[in-house]
Structures are given as C-alpha cells and as structure tokens.
Amino acid sequence: MVHCSCVWFRRYGNFIDNLRLFTRGGSGGMGYPRLGGEGGKGGDVWVVAHNKMTLKQLKDKYPQKRFVAGEGTNSRVSALKGSKGKDCEIPVPVGISVTDENGKIIGELNKEKDRILVAEGGLGGKLLTNFLPLKGQKRVIHLDLKLIADIGLVGFPNAGKSSLLSQVSHAKPAIADYAFTTLKPQLGKIMYNDFKQISVADLPGLIEGAHMNKGMGHKFLKHIERTRQLLFVVDISGFQLSSQTQYRTAFETIILLTKELELYKEELQTKPALLAVNKMDLPGAQDKFRVLMNQLQNPKDFLHLFEKNMIPERTMEFQHIIPISAITGEGIDELKNHIRKSLDEHANQEDDAYHKKQLLNLQISNTIFYSDPPPKNSVTSPR
C-alpha cells in the first residue's frame, strides 16, 4: 500500500484560468524613395511558454493586458536597409490553448519554450508599397489553461467534497452545513512517500440544469473539462437542495450528474471516473450502500423510475467505487491509492498509444521511401 500525506496546499480564490489580451505587431519603418532604401519590418508578438509562470502572474505584471511590438527603423542614407523592430514576448504557463476572438484555435503551448506567433509586424516601406510602411497586425487573443488538475471532484452541493479535499490533502477549504460551500474552485495536492504529487480540484457544486447555465453552470463544467479524471462524490443519504426541490437518492444523484455532463459535452463521459460514496459514518449507511451497489451493477433495472429526459444515453462506468467518510477518515487511504493507480494506468495507456502511433508513422514513411520507382519507359495514361 502506498501511504500518502500532503504537505502542500494552495487555495486559488484568485485563481485565473483564462485571459483576454490585446496584441499588435509593430509598424514598419519608412522607405527612402530617392535611394530605393527599405524600411525595417515591424516587430512580431509571440506567446512563449514558461514552466514557472501562471496566468495570475501575467495579469498582475501587465494589468493593462496590451502587448505591442517595436516599430521597424526608417531607411536613411547611413543605413538604407532599416532594422527590424523589437519583438514582444508574452510569458505564459505551459498547457495553454491560444484562440482568437472568434474562438478559432491559433495554437497550443505544451512544453517549456514552445512559442506561437500571434501578431505579425508590418512591412517596411519599399518600392512595392510606394516606400510607405504598413501597420502591424492587430489581434485580440484568449489564453485558456487546458488542465487545472489531475482529478476533478464532481458532485451536487453538500456532498462533502470540501471535507474530502481537506482529508486527502490537509487543505483548509471553508466547510459548512449549507448547500454552496464552494463558490470558487479550491485546489489541493496529495503528496506520496516517493514524492509523487497529484492535484485535486474541488469545483463549485453542480445543480440540476447546470448545462443551461443554472448555478455555476458552464463555468463549473468548463473546469471539469480541464481535469484528467473525474471523482464523483455522492452522499449515501441522497441530496435535497432546498425544501422546494425534490429529494434525490444516491443512485438518482449519480444518474443526474451523468446527465448534466452529457448535456454539456458528451466527451466528458469518456473521462476515466471513480466514485467515492461519502458519509458512511451515518446510521443505516451500510444498508443503503448495499442497495446502491445493486443499482449501479444493474442500472437498467432502475432507470424506469426516472423521467425520460433525465436518463443519460450511457451510464457512467466507474473504475473503482470506494465507501468513505470524510469526517472519520474511513476509506480515505484506499481512495488515495485508487486515485494514484488509476492515473498511473492511464498514463501508461497514453504512452503506449503514443508509441504505437509513432511506430505506425515510421512504417508509413519507410513504405513510401522504399517503394520501387516506376520504370523509366512506363507511360501513365491521362485521367
């Protein structure tokens, strides 16, 4: 068994996962018509990935969020060819997706020193432009963090996600006996004895209708997209948002959470998922857990209890189902071990898939390279 403890926790009440920036390439320099001199090209604006950078640091350092490259120098007698303007580099974290104002992806930065050109400098004045310089490209760009954590906690409000986060990571999120404890994402890290770290994000609780932007709605679901795996957390006693809303059993909660993910984006259901059944310290919890396990093993036998529009196209398949109590600590070590095992297994599968793809590409390129050329005297028939 891998024993783990956490010595590190970060709350990100001020966490930033996307930024909108204005960028403009530098203008070109003036040409010199009498001597045919060309002005220097304007500088370019680049987005460059750095391991120790965050979007919050970027915003704090450049509150105006405007990035303009230098102008090209004018052509003159002593230097007919003007110098290029100074490039502007925007430092961003690794794991950023860059899109334009219309949502079109410009590129992604997946490792240190990756760089993307986002705004090109204008041409310097030359014969082609009647020796007049051109202005640099203007572009509004959006930076989006692709991944905020390894594990995203999914559950209706008050399922005990905040309590669980404090158990697995010794974090200190606000915990109270009212529905919306978490209004902003909280991030904790599980640290294992061999120094392995796994980040866990407690995201604002979903409510029915979240896909239509109710409650934290799309903001929450967008965060879910940015985690490697999902950890569903449900209260064994079920859930009721308020006295005006319907009571839901633990099984109904799981079905409704699955439906919300499906309605927002079906691909979310393909993420690896684990299930933590919380509050097992309550009276009668063991009996309720046995009923829940039967329902999860034979979901089709119980779906007739739901209205048609509440039934997901496919039910969630959990790799592990772990009964826990975030209050007493029951099952927490087992949960941590399953989290690690699941992440390691999928990392290995991704590596295998990547190597197979590389091997296939190599085989294809070799086949093309070694294929016999057509005989010299062969005649190809016109199409």
Automatic annotation (TrEMBL):
CDD domains hit by this protein: Obg (cd01898)
Any one of the GO BP annotations: ribosome biogenesis
Stretches assigned to the Obg domain: 13-148
SUPFAM superfamilies (UniProt xref): Obg GTP-binding protein N-terminal domain, P-loop containing nucleoside triphosphate hydrolases
Entry superkingdom: Eukaryota
InterPro entries the UniProt entry points to: G_OBG, GTP-bd, GTP-bd_Obg/CgtA, GTP1_OBG_dom, GTP1_OBG_dom_sf, OBG_GTPase, P-loop_NTPase
Pfam families: GTP1_OBG (PF01018), MMR_HSR1 (PF01926)
Gene3D superfamilies: GTP1/OBG domain (2.70.210.12), P-loop containing nucleotide triphosphate hydrolases (3.40.50.300)
GO MF term list: GTP binding; GTPase activity; magnesium ion binding
Protein name, UniProt field: GTP-binding protein 10
Name of the gene this protein is made from: GTPBP10
